[in-house]
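Hey, I'm writing a tutorial for new members on how sequence and structure tokens pair up, and I'd like a real worked example in the thread rather than a made-up one. If someone can provide the structure for the chain below, I'll link this post from the tutorial.
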Amino acid sequence: MDNKTCSTCKGYKNCRDSAASWFFFIIGIIATVAIRAVTVLLHLAPIYAKISWYVGVVGFFLFFIYKFLISQRRARTIHERGLVEKIQKKEGLTDEDYEFLGDVFCNLASKKERINFFLIFGLSIVALLLALYMDFFVR
């Protein structure tokens, strides 16, 4: 789905990310960078490595609590509305069911999610390569 299609969609405002979503996304990015920087910082200044580790761990803790709470809320709504059963039996969905499912699909297709995974993967590779370099070639 392209942006033009999204912006003309009836549920477009539901697909836009909330301020809380952006806040925790930024926390996740900071945590990702901080954790990946620990190995390099150990060689440069151990105190900064410790600070980076704490920032990363606390950041991930906050980020994953947020993601867990969202996941729990969605799971509860799916259960309360009997959406799995309705879909399996091909029963009619209510307007609220469609709105909720549209919100879930919009969030699954979020660019922020893909950016987050890309950053975690990319920075992990960089951190691994830097760690190998620092451990085996720098004295």
